[in-house]
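Here is the promised in-class demo. Please do not try to memorize the tokens; focus on the logic of going from shape to residues.
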């Protein structure tokens, strides 16, 4: 039978090994440098009664347990600080030496530790309730609304700030040491499942995790618990592989299927204050289908360029998008684009395998000839000029309507009667060794065959060489990298592999983020803090692995808490942070 998170362990494991003093100092430095102790001190000062163990003791114990035991259970954290530290550290944390065989003493020590953990979760919980019994569903509505009552804002900003400070402390360390200098600011976002011990709600009784839900993964696998939105540092160019540690740049725990876009936007705002460069942002189909005002527009306003895939239902042909152009998958095309080009867009959307999409590249490249090139960038009104692909000094296609339009314009300018130009007057002599000359010849370009129609009934793009279009046309579909092309495939595949790599490391290698047995405490506050600690430890492992690969690892790198040159993204740069009131850790 599994032990409840609130039960105290009667006796510790026999003869546990001592922890390395450098490791303990590293963890203490990181926890103190994160700034969470200052916030917890302010919150705990409002509670009456004796103070008990310091929050630093609990958080350090959790980090040590996550690092050494691959667990964030409260009993494992208590064992780490009570039986695996030397006497100077016990004195620093306010703990007494306890004989392992003394049951009463061990229970008293464990109770103090559990009470301190309960104090932390209580001051951060906006809707505290008894999690030992399942309440009726009508009563649980009030507690659920405490977590979901805000649509675009965080219901628990203090909890989110503390959790992200823990996750970002190793990141700030890497920035201060110059390990992220080769990172161009590209990110990948994804929502992963965080399972819990609680069961689903029934007809009469609510779940112990009132704000939890069912997370549906890409393969259709369902998990009851929470969703964690993760940001991962990545790159779009293969040359940057191995030149910086691919760290988790933010975490947000939330109810599955709720506020997917706003959660990612909040994390991006934090990263922008930490790192000055904004690059590409890749997301799966869930972010492609998010509301424009919740995700796409705020992401572009922050400075990131979305790299998104499309569902087959999103790749639809719109003949009357603007000025008679054809809009599909974020591209503005000539209204006479052949149907085989449109079918290639549909096949590209239906193909999800990289190999199949690479095979479709030669066909999707043919659509580039029909794209409306940018003639003039957007002005102060948000309007830009697009040119007919058959117009200009270097047309991409040959169109009879464009030839009539250009000839008519030329004769009107000269005051002559318009006359169709004779094609036979053009020179037929071509230097076949000159690539540019071959491509510039009209016969080497695609030819569109529009129907017979009077000039006044033709689309606006066919009556004039340029048109004015809003820059924010197709806000959900437009991308800086044309969808489906080689550059887009390389960027999307690379960035998506980075977030999947983090999921693999965090869930299956060392951290076991997917294992509810390693995170048994109940409640959204506890799940948020423990998940943040697990990702914090995963970032530490990633930094250490990077230093070893670069042959930069030294024993003194255990002390990673000194980050004076890296700004805290949650602090105003002009404000001075208060020093920690706790005494400095002892020298080993």
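The designed amino acids, position by position:
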């Amino acid at each position: 039978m599994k032990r409840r998170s609130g039960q105290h362990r009667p006796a510790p494991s026999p003869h546990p090994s001592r922890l390395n003093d450098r490791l303990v100092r590293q963890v203490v430095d990181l926890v103190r440098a994160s700034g969470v102790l200052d916030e917890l001190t302010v919150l705990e000062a409002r509670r009456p009664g004796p103070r008990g163990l310091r929050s630093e003791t609990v958080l350090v114990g959790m980090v040590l347990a996550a690092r050494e035991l691959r667990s964030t259970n409260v009993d494992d954290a208590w064992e780490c600080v009570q039986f695996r530290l030397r006497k100077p550290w016990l004195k620093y944390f306010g703990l007494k030496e306890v004989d392992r065989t003394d049951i009463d003493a061990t229970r008293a020590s464990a109770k103090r530790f559990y009470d301190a953990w309960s104090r932390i979760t209580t001051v951060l919980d906006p809707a505290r309730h008894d999690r030992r019994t399942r309440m009726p569903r009508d009563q649980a509505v009030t507690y659920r609304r405490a977590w979901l009552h805000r649509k675009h804002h965080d219901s628990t900003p203090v909890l989110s700030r503390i959790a992200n400070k823990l996750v970002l402390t190793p990141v700030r360390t890497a920035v201060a040491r110059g390990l992220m200098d080769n990172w161009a600011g590209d990110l990948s976002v994804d929502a992963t499942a965080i399972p819990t011990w609680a069961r689903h709600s029934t007809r009469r009784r609510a779940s112990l995790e009132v704000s939890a839900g069912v997370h549906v993964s890409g393969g259709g696998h369902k998990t009851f618990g929470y969703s964690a939105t993760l940001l991962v540092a990545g790159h779009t160019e293969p040359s940057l592989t191995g030149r910086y540690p691919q760290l988790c740049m933010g975490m947000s725990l939330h109810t599955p299927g709720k506020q997917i876009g706003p959660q990612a936007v909040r994390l991006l705002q934090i990263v922008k204050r930490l790192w000055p460069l904004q690059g590409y942002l890749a997301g799966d189909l869930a972010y492609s289908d998010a509301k424009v005002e919740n995700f796409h527009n705020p992401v572009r306003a922050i400075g990131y360029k979305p790299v998104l895939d499309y569902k087959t239902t999103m790749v639809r042909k719109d003949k009357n998008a603007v000025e008679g152009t054809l809009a599909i998958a974020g591209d503005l095309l000539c209204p006479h684009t052949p149907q085989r080009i449109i079918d290639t867009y549909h096949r590209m959307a239906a193909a999800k395998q990289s190999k199949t999409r690479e095979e479709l590249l030669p066909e999707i490249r043919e659509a580039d000839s029909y794209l409306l090139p940018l003639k003039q960038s957007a002005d102060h009104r948000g309007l830009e000029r697009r040119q007919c692909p058959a117009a200009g000094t270097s047309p991409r296609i040959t169109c009879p309507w464009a030839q009539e339009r250009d000839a008519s314009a030329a004769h009107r300018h000269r005051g002559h009667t318009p006359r169709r130009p004779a094609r036979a007057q053009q020179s037929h002599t071509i230097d076949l060794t000159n690539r540019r000359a071959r491509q510039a010849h009209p016969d080497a370009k695609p030819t569109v065959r529009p129907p017979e129609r009077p000039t006044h009934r033709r689309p606006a793009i066919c009556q004039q060489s340029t048109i004015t279009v809003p820059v924010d046309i197709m806000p959900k579909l437009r991308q800086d990298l044309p969808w489906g092309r080689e550059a887009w495939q390389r960027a999307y595949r690379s960035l998506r592999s980075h977030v999947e790599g983090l999921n693999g490391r965090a869930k299956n290698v060392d951290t076991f983020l997917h294992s509810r047995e390693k995170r048994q405490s109940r409640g959204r506050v506890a799940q948020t803090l423990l998940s943040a600690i697990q990702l914090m430890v995963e970032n530490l492992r990633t930094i250490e692995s990077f230093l070893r690969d670069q042959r930069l690892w030294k024993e003194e790198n255990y002390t990673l808490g000194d980050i004076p040159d890296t700004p805290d993204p949650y602090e105003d740069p002009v404000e001075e942070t208060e020093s920690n009131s706790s005494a400095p850790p002892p020298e080993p």
